[in-house]
Inverse folding.
């Protein structure tokens, strides 16, 4: 028996042979020529070795990292009562399950749900959770959540393949998850109530950022339409609102939220600190969102409105069914960018006394047991924010690419 | 005829809706403001405060860490709230102006470095951008202040660099032009020189482009101006270097920057620089490849290609987003509050705490920042107009 090696049917179509560059040549080409590049390379390598050595010496001898694991619960959930932690774990599992299902349903047509990159990502996440110096229970919980995520995604794909119409309910489901989440965190209706002054940490950061972005959306749309409107009075008000809010620093608006909202409200009506913070964040980011959406509105060709008019749609219908969906789709990357900066901006609430992720770190630093541990805690903080923001910006780039392909 | 007799029903009439909607908008706004104003009035009366800016004249009696305006908290006139706010305003302007200049330099350097032939430089530029813009500015500021600058050694064990720069808990010491009188004369000469150089350069370009001359004469003049300016910069300004006194004590001479302003500047510059770097990178990328290739084909060297062909075109894309980054830097300077640098915002905050006048203080803060941003915005728009493509 002779085996026939499969021949390329048309050798002309095969891609050109890749030029193999040996590592030495690569280094020569990219790092060492011409002479000034070599100089730059050596200077950079020198600085990096020096700084890296200094950092390692500090990190392994001087730094006392125990401050992080000792306060992990504070970083995560603030002063949330520890006997109610199970509610947060339940919420986290619900979120993980729904993310898995949504992922599975969205990716129902992908043949390999768990591609190599996804598997590597899961493995790395599991590995990190194992390396981190946290209690064994947390490690197991994180690994359990990862398994839950994979199972839910697998199930979601199976269900999604059977019922393709399910995709449109994802948004409503998330809204329900949100309500359940608020109920689980805040209590009431059979659960013990936990006042907002005890909410804190990363949980509060995520909560405030998501609530504010959701609330600022309708306001932003209204002001964007108002600014584009041909009614002079409406336009004037919108421009004034947008420009004034965009002209003053966020900290001033948050200050206004904390100090002045109670002044402007009737006696006895005093929204609590977190709510006031959310109002401030919402007012602030709706002005920026309005500008983003206006960009999208300007990108819609006139023909769309005219065609809608010709079909007999009245202005409200034209806006809500023809113009707005296209405008928002055009500015999704900008909106994600807005969300990332809103997420970062929640840190400013630590100045007005809300104990979100950075705020709780500052109270940890004020604890006499952990005095002078600012480098460790702030590095941990920076890492936490970086992971979230980097993940979101990478995600938004991915969405942008997919949206570009569609056109 | 029939249409006119029946008339268009009111709710289908465009003109009616236009007027009605606007009246509605005005009514809603008026209603909101009356309600809020009424509540405010009631609340203020309960506290017993009357609206007015008279409090600005009374004595502030709190000290601020940094001051260039001879504010004196113990004096009733030179220590009024108006004076302390002015001192804060000067502190803000100091940070904003220096910050804008340095962050532009950092941003453009990092943006251009991402096109470098050197792989390492390219990657470092990318890593810098990804790190700096994904960590909130407040975390960065606190990090620089608490974890870097506050951990500098005590004055006795100060760090020194080249015998010109010193750093300790007392602050950073830099070489700085000495006498004020001599400095202002030299600065005036330098500015006049720069303006003259600009006009000579324009006439040189005109001579080359329109008359087809070589532009040699103008080049000579430019070289002379440059040489004179360099000489003035090196020797005329009377640089003073910080130096260690013989016995242990304070460092003398040069400029002392406090830890607060250093941390604020470093944080703002690094954070905003990352955004500017991305803007510059996108701007350079937006210039069509053909432009690079065409200028190469015309025999321009790579630095000339960048300066004469690519960068002017990239500027059109760069300047509008740069405008909003500059405004962001100006607004973010208010985070000085978190690291105890007495800028206008943190001074106003103390003023509010002492006087209990949120409305007046808020109006002052809003006006200050709106004016500052307007100045930035107007000048950037002017710059934008000068680089935009002129199409007929």
């Amino acid at each position: 028996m002779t085996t026939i090696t499969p021949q390329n049917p048309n050798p002309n179509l095969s891609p050109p042979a890749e030029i193999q560059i040996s590592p030495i040549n690569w280094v020569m080409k990219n790092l060492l020529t011409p002479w000034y590049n070599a100089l730059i390379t050596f200077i950079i390598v020198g600085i990096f070795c020096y700084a890296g050595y200094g950092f390692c010496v500090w990190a392994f001898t001087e730094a006392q990292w125990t401050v992080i694991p000792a306060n992990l619960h504070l970083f995560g959930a603030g002063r949330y009562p520890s006997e109610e932690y199970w509610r947060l774990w339940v919420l986290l599992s619900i979120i993980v399950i729904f993310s898995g299902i949504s992922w599975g349903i969205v990716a129902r047509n992908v043949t390999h749900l768990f591609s190599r990159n996804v598997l590597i990502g899961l493995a790395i996440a599991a590995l990190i959770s194992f390396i981190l110096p946290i209690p064994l229970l947390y490690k197991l919980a994180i690994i359990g959540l990862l398994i839950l995520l994979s199972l839910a995604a697998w199930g979601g794909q199976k269900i999604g393949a059977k019922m393709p119409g399910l995709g449109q309910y994802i948004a409503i489901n998330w809204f329900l998850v949100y309500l359940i989440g608020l109920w689980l965190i805040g209590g009431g209706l059979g659960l013990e109530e936990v006042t907002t002054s005890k909410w804190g940490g990363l949980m509060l950061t995520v909560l405030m950022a998501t609530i504010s972005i959701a609330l600022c959306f309708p306001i932003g749309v209204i002001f964007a339409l108002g600014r584009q409107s041909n009614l002079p009075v409406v336009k004037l008000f919108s421009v004034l609102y947008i420009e004034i809010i965009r002209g003053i620093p966020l900290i001033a608006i948050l200050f206004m939220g904390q100090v002045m909202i109670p002044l402007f409200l009737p006696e006895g009506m005093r929204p609590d600190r977190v709510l006031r913070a959310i109002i401030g964040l919402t007012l602030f980011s709706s002005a920026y969102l309005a500008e983003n959406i206006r960009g999208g509105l300007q990108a819609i060709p006139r023909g769309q409105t005219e065609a809608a008019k010709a079909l007999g749609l009245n202005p409200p219908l034209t806006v809500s069914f023809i113009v707005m969906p296209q405008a928002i789709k055009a500015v999704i990357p900008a909106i994600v960018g807005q969300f990332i900066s809103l997420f970062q901006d929640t840190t400013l609430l630590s100045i007005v006394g809300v104990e979100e992720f950075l705020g709780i770190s500052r109270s940890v630093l004020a604890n006499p047991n952990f005095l002078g541990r600012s480098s460790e805690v702030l590095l941990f903080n920076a890492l936490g924010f970086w992971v979230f923001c980097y993940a979101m910006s990478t995600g938004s780039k991915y969405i942008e690419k997919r949206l570009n392909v569609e056109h | 005829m029939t249409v006119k007799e029946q008339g268009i029903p009111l709710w289908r009439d465009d003109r009616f809706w236009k007027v009605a909607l606007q009246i509605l908008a005005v009514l809603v706004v008026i209603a909101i403001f009356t309600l809020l104003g009424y509540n405010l009035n009631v609340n203020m009366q309960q506290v017993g405060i009357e609206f007015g800016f008279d409090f600005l004249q009374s004595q502030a009696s709190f000290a601020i860490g940094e001051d260039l305006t001879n504010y004196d908290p113990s004096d009733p006139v030179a220590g009024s709230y108006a004076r302390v706010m002015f001192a804060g305003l000067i502190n803000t302007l100091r940070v904003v102006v220096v910050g804008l200049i340095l962050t532009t330099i950092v941003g453009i350097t990092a943006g251009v470095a991402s096109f470098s032939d050197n792989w390492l430089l390219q990657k470092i530029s990318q890593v810098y951008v990804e790190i700096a813009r994904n960590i909130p500015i407040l975390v960065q500021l606190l990090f620089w202040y608490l974890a870097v600058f506050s951990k500098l050694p005590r004055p006795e064990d100060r760090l020194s660099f080249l015998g010109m720069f010193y750093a300790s808990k007392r602050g950073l010491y830099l070489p700085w032009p000495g006498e004020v009188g001599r400095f202002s004369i030299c600065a005036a000469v330098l500015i006049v020189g720069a303006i003259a150089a600009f006009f000579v350069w324009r006439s040189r370009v005109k001579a080359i482009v329109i008359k087809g001359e070589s532009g040699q004469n103008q080049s000579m003049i430019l070289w002379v101006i440059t040489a004179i300016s360099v000489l003035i910069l090196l020797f005329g300004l009377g640089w003073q270097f910080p130096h260690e006194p013989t016995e242990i004590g304070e460092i003398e001479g040069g400029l002392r920057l406090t830890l607060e302003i250093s941390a604020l500047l470093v944080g703002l510059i690094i954070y905003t620089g990352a955004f500017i770097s991305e803007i510059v990178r996108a701007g350079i990328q937006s210039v069509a490849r053909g432009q690079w290739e065409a200028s190469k084909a015309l025999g321009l060297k790579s630095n000339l290609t960048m300066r004469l062909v690519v960068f002017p075109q990239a500027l059109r894309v760069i300047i509008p987003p740069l405008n909003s980054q500059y405004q962001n830097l100006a607004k973010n300077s208010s985070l000085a509050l978190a690291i105890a640098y007495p800028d206008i915002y943190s001074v106003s905050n103390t003023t509010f705490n002492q006087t209990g006048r949120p409305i007046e203080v808020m109006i002052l803060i809003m006006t200050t920042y709106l004016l500052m941003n307007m100045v930035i915005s107007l000048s950037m728009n002017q710059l934008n107009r000068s680089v935009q493509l002129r199409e007929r």
Observations:
- Chain B has twelve helices and six strands.
- The mean pLDDT of chain B is 84.
- The two ends of chain B are 50 Å apart (CA to CA).
- The first helix of chain B runs from residue 2 to 6.
